[in-house]
Design a protein that fits this description.
The complex is a heterodimer of chains A (280) and B (313).
Chain A (H helix, E strand, L loop, with lengths): L1 H8 L1 H18 L1 H4 L33 H36 L2 H16 L2 H11 L4 H28 L2 H8 L4 H38 L10 H8 L7 H29 L9
Chain B lengths: L4 E10 L4 E10 L4 E5 L6 H9 L6 E9 L2 E2 L12 E4 L13 H12 L4 H14 L5 H6 L7 H13 L5 E5 L7 H18 L2 E5 L3 H7 L2 E6 L2 E7 H6 L4 H8 L46 E4 L2 E3 L10
Parallel strand pairs in B: 3-8, 3-9, 6-7, 7-8
Antiparallel strand pairs in B: 1-2, 1-4, 4-5, 9-10, 10-12, 11-12
The chains are: A mainly alpha (280), B alpha/beta (313).
Amino acid sequence: MTALRHLMRDPVAAFGLLIVVFAVFVATFAHWLAPFPDDAFESNIMQRLRPPSAEFLFGTDNLGRDIFSRVILGTRSALLVALAVVLAAMLIGVPVGLIAGWRDGWLSEGLMRFTDVFLAVPQLILALALGQLLAPGIFTAMVALALTYWPFFARTVFAETRRLRGALFVDALAGIGAHPARILVLHVLPNAAPAVLVRATIGMGFTILTAAILGFLGVGATPPTPDWGLAVSEARQHLPDAWWFATFPGLAILLLVLGFNLLGDGLRDAADPRLRRSRH
Amino acid sequence: MTALLDIEGLRVDMRGGAQILDGVSITVAPGQIMGVVGESGCGKSTLLRAMLGILPRGATARGRVMFEGRDILPDQAAQARGRIGFVPQDPYLSLNPTFRAGDQIFEIMRRHATGTRADHRAKLLDLLRAVQLPDPEAALRKYPHEFSGGQRQRLLIAAALSCDPSLVVADEPTTALDVTTQREILGLLREIARARGLSMLFVTHDFGVLASLCDAVTVLYAGRVAEAGPTRAILDAPTHPYTRLLLACHPDRAVELAGIPGTVPPATAQPSGCRFHPRCPQAEAHCADAVPPLLAITEGRSLACAHPEPALV
């Protein structure tokens, strides 16, 4: 709770939190907030590429769909994709880090070298390759993103586990017969939780950005899904005349990624007093 | 008088062949404060951890540790839990940083101390006042990192005493502290031990601490006992060459500060015979062949050396 209070005193982090909370709100109530919720899948070719107006706040796209509605509807998929990718990456990375940090010898070395290999895989290339290999689509993109993001969690948790492995309270727990799994999950992991949380928050922003890039490259979301990256990609052919087509989905990406990054930075500062910036 | 703690032939081996302790025997009488001295790496901390059943992974202990008439080594000290209080060397990671200090101590008390939660709380607050921790009520709700080093050490002394132990085991509890705090904590320990009739096993490498606190001393070198006896007698007339050299290193006692040439041998490559012979100024050829047995030389004193200073024996 002290960390949260600290976070709220940091105006930049509070701004990040505000953006994220707003995005979650929009995503949750997307179907009620969007003026034309049916525009997710329907097209009105008669009113294509209309500039922003009172009726269409962000204008319409090449199929006559309301961009404002599609940006709102796209929030949900952006957040869900990011959340799923980060959770999957945590599910792989955290146990690997705990086990590698706890154990000595070949198992630990093997796991960490394996981690290093995945750390060296370029994210976009893997996503493109997987997209070509399997069916290009949002699920393939998510698999590729999760596969390249888990090493960050593994390394973070590994470092904390190594630091605490020789701590007296850990030896004492082992001395009274606590099972390693119990020690790791109930006593070591809570110590790594702040670092993992920071990683996850920054990872959310990172994943949204990369997912948008993949959508833009055509190996992410598939039409007619309302996806920000996809929208920017479709808008390319209509630039610079229909500037609103690319601008508003682009701004949405920018804002949400910015929100997660600011929040992540703020969380890191709140979790680690040594890194606290002084603001006056 | 039966001993409260009787360690006999304690051996600790690491996986991979390193031998940390080789047949260490120490006896602590009720109410006695026994000091254990030696350079870093002589196995002082391992001795304490072996008897408490909290050896690092990969280490195994053999021998006998009789405490209150029972061997506590085979079942990892389970029977002695709550009867032995432990004050660790480094108070920093002795408590889990993610839980409140008070809760961690109450957890021990719920398991080992009698009475209700309210009793425990009252008792711990009394102890915190006794160790002079400022604002004990607030201290219970704090997290370990919110204390200073000295405060954390006081907290752990209170924790060690929380279940009314008959023996307190302390591993250089004052080395991490500055001299004035050190003095205060030592005074506190002595006072508490006298007031409660506690026995103590006190590991240190500081002869000043030893002289002011301990009734008896055991000098450890490379995992073996070099010499043992009453503090005054050992300090006034050390018989083992190692003890004499160690004493000569103390600024209060030496005119010119001396050192001991060489270092403690690594546990993986112990020298044959007397383990001190490569550094001993009096070593002779046979010192490298035979292990000198620990023999009683006078009342309450024992020594493991083939040729002690004759004038002093």
